[in-house]
């Protein structure tokens, strides 16, 4: 009698748990060791000591690899392979997996998106899977494959943040990607063993912005809490020497002394201070003094400052007492056509030529937020690019909230609104005085073409031409 034939194992495949663990580890390594730049399949294969063919099989989710190979891949990123990270794949499982991947129902596509949201290899998978992305509101999450690198900016900030006592100034109009870059900078800093504290200045209440002592006490309290230290302000604060000296001694003798590692302090939306000129002068002069202390005092060198803002009000600041003319300046610009096409591929759009990217770029420029909104609706609601543009010209369309925000800002500045009205109406070069040029540029409303000043994009020309038509 012949022995009964056993079911032969065809290897193992990654489970959704294992896939997420592996890709999160790859992402962390890319941020910490590769300045946030994604590794190619070849580079990942070298690190895992496997061929790119084997790596592609592993990531296909329906082709088995042996358990030893899977363990090798995990150990390359200091991960221990657990039973929940993989599924044993026999012949029946393989047929079932292939059938599952061939179905196109909404539920299965949604489930598939959830399992692949951390996929660092979205470019390779775009032809196989249609992805559903969340509405693009706010910074791009660290685990999202939709973040577009803008070389050499990421590498510049990663290199600078490891310098003692450094200052980095990140400037751009709103919704240009400042917060997304800061998220990655903080993740990189944490991987170096640095401590971080992040303050959005719009969280400071108005009362504190009229009282320097209250502002600095709240500022120091926030930093201490972010670092996990008991603020102990009442004991450490000395009203007799004044709040500026008290805050300086507090940071140097209390906070910096307790922590041996460097501290990255991020101040977001510092534009808020310009609404309070007297406080702005005093606060920014204090920041500048801390930066200067770092040039000679080893304890202060542990403090690394990142200032994030949309505009500077140089007219109200003493340039010799301001932090806005020291440190590494980073200016975020618009996406290039190549970056737009890359982002479209990551969304799963199959643009066969540069026609679509040209069309979209001529309409909204390379504005990151407008591009992301466009691609979201093109993917999720089956709108054509022509329909999207037609509706936007008529009433703002999918960009209406972005446009309303800018419209409100112009209404608050009637002189600036009148100047912009002339600019969008004119088909020729229009003279704009330097101060108004600077303000319009800070809002992201204009671009420069040689010595010509033009609306940033045709969307702005069409929308604001209509809104401002009664002004001129």
What would your notes on this structure say?
By secondary structure, the protein is α/β, with parallel strands linked by helices. It has three domains: 12-119, 434 Repressor (Amino-terminal Domain) (Orthogonal Bundle); 153-331, Rossmann fold, CATH 3.40.50.300; 402-467, no CATH class. Helices cover 49% and strands 9% of the residues. It contains 21 helices and nine strands. The strands form three sheets. A five-stranded parallel sheet has the order 4-5-6-3-7. The model is unreliable at 1-9 and 91-131 (pLDDT under 50).
Strand order within the widest beta sheet: 4-5-6-3-7
* Mean pLDDT over all positions: 83
- Identify low-pLDDT runs: 1-9, 91-131
Query: What is the H-and-E element order?
Result: EHHHHEHHHHEHEHHHEHEEHHHHHHHEEH
Oligomer description: single chain
Helical segment count = 21
Structure at a glance:
The chain has about 475 residues and is an alpha/beta fold. The chain has 21 helices and nine strands.
Structural key phrases:
Rossmann fold; 434 Repressor (Amino-terminal Domain); 3 domains; 49% helix; 472 residues; single chain; alpha/beta; 9 strands; two-stranded antiparallel ribbon
SSE topology:
Blueprint: E1 12-14, H1 16-33, H2 41-48, H3 52-60, H4 67-75, E2 86-88, H5 91-102, H6 106-116, H7 122-125, H8 153-161, E3 167-171, H9 178-191, E4 195-200, H10 212-226, H11 233-236, H12 243-258, E5 263-268, H13 277-293, E6 303-309, E7 328-331, H14 337-346, H15 355-364, H16 368-380, H17 385-395, H18 400-411, H19 414-425, H20 434-442, E8 446-449, E9 452-455, H21 458-467
Parallel strand pairs: 3-6, 3-7, 4-5, 5-6
Antiparallel strand pairs: 1-2, 8-9
């Amino acid at each position: 009698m012949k022995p009964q034939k056993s079911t032969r194992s065809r290897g193992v495949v990654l489970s959704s748990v294992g896939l997420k663990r592996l890709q999160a580890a790859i992402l962390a390594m890319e941020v910490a060791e590769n300045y946030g730049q994604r590794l190619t399949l070849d580079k990942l294969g070298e690190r895992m000591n496997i061929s790119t063919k084997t790596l592609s099989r592993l990531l296909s989710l329906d082709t088995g690899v042996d358990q030893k190979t899977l363990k090798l891949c995990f150990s390359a990123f200091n991960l221990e392979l657990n039973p929940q990270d993989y599924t044993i794949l026999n012949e029946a499982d393989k047929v079932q997996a292939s059938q599952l991947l061939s179905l196109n129902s909404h539920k299965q596509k949604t489930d598939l998106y959830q399992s692949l949201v951390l996929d660092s290899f979205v470019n390779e998978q775009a032809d196989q899977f249609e992805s559903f992305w969340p509405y693009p509101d706010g910074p791009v999450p660290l685990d999202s494959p939709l973040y577009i690198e803008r070389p050499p900016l990421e590498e510049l900030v990663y290199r600078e943040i490891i310098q003692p006592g450094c200052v980095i100034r990140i400037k751009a109009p709103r919704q240009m990607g400042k917060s997304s870059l800061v998220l990655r900078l903080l993740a990189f800093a944490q991987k170096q063993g640095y401590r971080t504290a992040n303050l959005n200045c719009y969280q400071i209440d108005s009362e504190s912005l009229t009282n320097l002592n209250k502002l600095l006490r709240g500022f120091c309290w926030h930093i201490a809490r972010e670092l996990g230290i008991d603020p102990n302000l009442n004991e450490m604060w000395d009203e007799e020497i004044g709040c500026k000296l008290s805050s300086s001694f507090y940071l140097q003798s209390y906070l910096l002394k307790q922590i041996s590692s460097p501290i990255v302090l991020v101040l977001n939306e510092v534009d808020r201070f310009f609404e309070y000129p007297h406080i702005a002068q005093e606060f920014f002069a204090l920041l500048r003094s801390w930066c200067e202390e770092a040039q000679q005092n080893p304890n202060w060198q542990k403090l690394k400052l990142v200032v994030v803002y949309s505009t500077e009000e140089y007219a109200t600041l003493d340039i010799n007492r301001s932090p806005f003319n020291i440190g590494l300046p980073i200016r975020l610009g618009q996406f290039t056509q190549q970056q737009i096409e890359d982002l479209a591929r990551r969304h799963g759009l199959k643009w066969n030529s540069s026609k679509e990217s040209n069309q979209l770029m001529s309409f909204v420029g390379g504005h990151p937020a407008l591009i992301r909104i466009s691609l979201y609706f093109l993917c999720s609601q089956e709108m054509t690019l022509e329909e999207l543009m037609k509706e936007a010209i008529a009433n703002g369309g999918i960009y209406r909230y972005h446009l309303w925000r800018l419209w409100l800002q112009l209404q608050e500045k009637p002189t600036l609104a009148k100047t912009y009205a002339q600019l969008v109406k004119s088909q020729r070069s229009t003279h704009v005085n330097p101060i108004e040029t600077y303000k319009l540029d800070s809002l992201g409303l204009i671009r420069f073409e040689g010595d010509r000043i033009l609306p940033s994009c045709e969307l702005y020309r069409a929308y604001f031409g209509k809104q401002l038509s009664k002004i001129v």
